[in-house]
Write a structure and sequence with these properties.
Radius of gyration: 38 Å
Order of helices and strands: HHEHHEEEEEHHEHHHEHHEHEHEHHHHHH
Structural class: alpha+beta
Number of strands: 11
Number of helices: 19
Largest sheet: 6 strands, mixed, barrel
Strand content: 5-15%
Length: about 525
């Protein structure tokens, strides 16, 4: 038989069992639709994640922070860590950790591993790093028409302040002798109305930074001891507290404190006097300089601060006076405990398309903590892959059920067409030709079912795309969606779905085809 005859016999055999063939075709259509739909959704979601993460500037940022040092038992008296009472080993270990933490709170804080200029230079040289931004912060006083103590003075890249400008502009250059001031600080300086705020631009502002830690110390003591705030202290108490802050722990008895409070206050003062990143041996040193106000930024509301991501610079969110980087370095480096010292954090900007996970790993290998979108991105990709794998598994089960239906249909067809098979054998058809005939019928069902399934999947995707995108949009908290679809139908999915369905149905037809090929032509002619 020639190929055309083969096709004619196959179609004739399927047409004779129209209902059974139609039901089998429905099974293949549903299975192929489920498979194509799930694969397209999985591909689309992975592409969606790529677009939504990698398409945003914040993804190509790594926030590097100084890591807290682990507790150190060196020099701790053994009796301070002695756990009394009978208890399990796990509970004893937990209690011992708390005893160590409590003891160390009474001692000078340990110096963390700061980001030194050498470390920052090493990070900047990593492949794919475009820029490393750092901030310096310090407490100070601002003087214009009046004096405002204390203010948080911040120096560093100020471009992210641009959306918050309500008057003026950002500094013209990194070394410009200009400052940006928060609207609240301007209010305290006496510029209260909108008209006054506009006239304040280009006005001089004197900054004093350095040994002005007494005011924050009050807040620290209040938090630690739970006592009255600074404004409720008597003049005598303020005077005594200032002496204590100048590192005179032996005069702690000047306050009526309990033994536990005295111990806590001694530890606090010892920490202020000894730690490297406060004021080592130079508590009274200050630096004064005068700048021009070039811009005013609005303060962030509590709701806006809650929305800030960990990548947002807390220095810019909480600062009062902002200096450009070179100008700020020149000011802060006049303080002996700041000059040539490191910083606590850095904002690393990565070139889009670079190997972000490799950069994160390299920075963490230096001993610093990082926060970036890399881990969230990897976690999201894993979740989508698992979801897609589950959907694909169900689609394969549907195809398997359809394949069982094909086997059943063709086995029944073999029984019903036994005499026909005998006639074909009698006129010269070989076993291979008989087997090929039934395999062709299985392949035809697979091909037609695959085409119908793909058409159905594409149609469902049009509806499903809008529904899925609406669900995702509800979770994005007002963020603009960068992707236009969550279903992707590449060319290889069309070809692959047809090939897979045809392969599965042909394989399902193998058993009935072999059974048909083994029929004895003489017995077949006697059949029926």
């Amino acid at each position: 038989m020639n190929p055309l005859q083969f096709l004619k016999f196959a179609l004739h055999g399927l047409w004779r069992q129209k209902v059974r063939t139609a039901l089998t075709l429905v099974g293949v259509t549903v299975g192929t639709c489920a498979l194509a739909f799930s694969v397209a959704l999985g591909l689309g979601l992975r592409q969606f994640i790529d677009n939504e993460f990698k398409g945003r500037d914040d993804f190509w940022r790594v926030l590097v922070r100084v890591d807290e040092l682990p507790p150190d038992e060196t020099g701790v008296p053994p009796h301070e860590l002695e756990v009394k009472g009978e208890m399990s080993a796990e509970r004893k270990a937990r209690i011992r950790e708390q005893l160590l933490d409590r003891y160390q709170r009474t001692r000078p804080p340990r110096r963390p591993k700061l980001l030194t200029p050498e470390n920052l230079d090493a990070i900047a040289k990593l492949p794919g790093v475009a820029e490393v931004r750092t901030f310096r912060t310090g407490d100070g006083r601002a003087t214009g028409a009046t004096t405002v103590p204390p203010v948080s003075v911040v120096s560093g890249p100020l471009a992210d302040l641009a959306p918050r400008l309500i008057a003026g502009r950002l500094p013209a250059s990194p070394d410009a002798r200009e400052v940006v001031v928060s609207e609240f600080t301007m209010y305290l300086l006496g510029f209260q109305s909108d008209a006054q705020l506009a006239r304040a631009l280009d006005a001089p502002l004197e900054l004093v930074v350095g040994g002005v830690k007494n005011e924050p110390s009050f807040a620290m003591l209040r938090a630690l001891l739970g006592r009255k705030p600074p404004e409720e202290l008597t003049p005598e108490q303020v005077k005594a507290l200032k002496k204590l802050t100048d590192a005179l722990p032996k005069k702690i008895d000047a306050f009526d404190l309990s033994a536990a409070e005295k111990l806590a206050l001694a530890g606090l003062l010892a920490g202020q006097a000894d730690t490297d990143y406060e004021r080592p041996g130079d508590s009274g040193k200050t630096v004064t300089d005068t700048f021009r106000i070039c811009g005013v930024v609005r303060v962030l509301t509590h709701a806006e601060k809650k929305k800030n991501t960990p990548l947002d610079a807390w220095e810019l969110a909480s600062g009062d006076v902002f200096l450009p980087p070179a100008t700020g370095d020149a000011l802060f480096n006049k303080l002996p405990w700041v000059k040539d010292r490191g910083v606590f954090s850095a904002d690393v900007r990565v070139t889009p398309g670079a190997d972000l996970p490799a950069i994160v790993s390299a920075v963490e290998a230096m001993g610093y903590k990082t926060h970036s979108g890399a881990k969230w991105f990897a976690a999201a990709k894993r979740e989508v892959t698992l979801i897609a794998a589950g959907l694909n598994l169900f689609a394969l089960i549907a195809l398997f059920v359809a394949a069982v239906g094909i086997t059943n249909t063709l086995v029944t067809s073999v029984i019903e067409r036994t005499k026909e098979i005998g006639i074909l054998r009698a006129v010269g058809a070989t076993r291979r030709q008989i087997m090929s005939l039934f395999l062709l019928e299985g392949a035809l069902i697979g091909a037609l079912g695959a085409l119908m399934g793909l058409a159905l999947a594409r149609g469902l995707a049009v509806w499903g795309d809008g529904w899925v995108r609406s669900l995702i949009a509800q979770q994005m908290d007002g963020e603009k969606m960068l992707s236009t679809t969550v279903f992707v139908f590449p060319w290889w999915l069309w070809l692959g779905s047809v090939a897979f369905a045809v392969g599965a149905t042909t394989l399902a037809a193998l058993y009935p085809a072999r059974r048909a090929a083994r029929i004895n032509p003489i017995e077949a002619l006697r059949f029926g």
